[in-house]
Amino acid sequence: MGIKIIKAGMLTTIQDLGRYGLQRYGMAVSGAMDSYALLLGNSILGNADNEAAIECTVLGPIIYFEQTQLITVTGANLSPKVDGQSLPMWKPVLIEAGSLLSFGRPNSGCRAYICFQGGLDIPKLLGSRSTYSKGQVGGWKGRPLQEGDRIAFRHCYKGKDSLFRWSMDPSLYPDLSTNVIRVMDGPQLPCFESAAQKSFFSDVFTISNNSDRMGYRLTSKRLRLTEQKELLSTAVTFGSIQVPPDGNAIVLMADHPTTGGYPVIAQVATIDLPLLAQKGPNNRISFERISLDEAHDLLKKQHTQFKKLKRAIALKYEKTAYHRFEL
């Protein structure tokens, strides 16, 4: 078979990079909140970039392995353990059949990703294996994982090696202790009072408990418009920062709606979406203003590093010749 969920954890779902091309029909993109952690995890195992993994939130699951499999855990450090022993992150680890993978106290971040060599045997729906829980679409039966769920591996590990002495340099991943999120000006920024604009780029915001995969509600000084007026609904995306009439900003996250009618004061730079996704309720953040060109340059640099990493890992696989699947 594959794995069996013994304990589900707080919010444990199947996610890949998302369901694109359908927003015009009202379908949310969804996908991993921290897509970079997912990309890195799949690269460590030699998987395709868009291979689905298990996203764990704050309190991770307990998973029983019915078959031996090669995995890696990336993203937040939620104290992963195998049979009670600490599990190293950011490297391939062979989990023997009969073992229990569990998680403990969060040490940094709030979302970890369990990636499996060859992926999980979950059908694609509308081009993606991602779970959109509010729409009961995709993933495992359109919902978060529950106790008793059993999911098969698409491929079984058939390599000869059981111990891998290399790991990814963790400096390639964002420093989760950073609380500054880089943003670009939103289309309605000039519609806000000058004091509100100044406050947005200088004040500290607290992520409300009333936050989820759809959006993070922020609390701070009220952000006031120069005048209240109706706006036509327009397209929004992951990281759009809207301000409803109460003046408290909302950052749209992975399960965001496809359109919005509130003024958008700023847009989170793509490079910092993973960092923001690793922040949870009661965490405090602030915003740093950058230009679109700066955002592009930062992302290009990250892509270059990512390509180098993939090439380096591919060479390790060629040398060890362990990368084999049983269909």
Automatic annotation (TrEMBL):
Residues 24-305 form the Carboxyltransferase domain. It comes from the Bacteria. Keywords: ATP-binding, Hydrolase, Nucleotide-binding, Transferase. SUPFAM superfamilies: Cyclophilin-like (SSF50891). One of its GO terms (molecular function) is hydrolase activity. This is Biotin-dependent carboxyltransferase family protein. It comes from Sphingobacterium puteale. The lineage of its organism: Bacteria, Pseudomonadati, Bacteroidota, Sphingobacteriia, Sphingobacteriales.
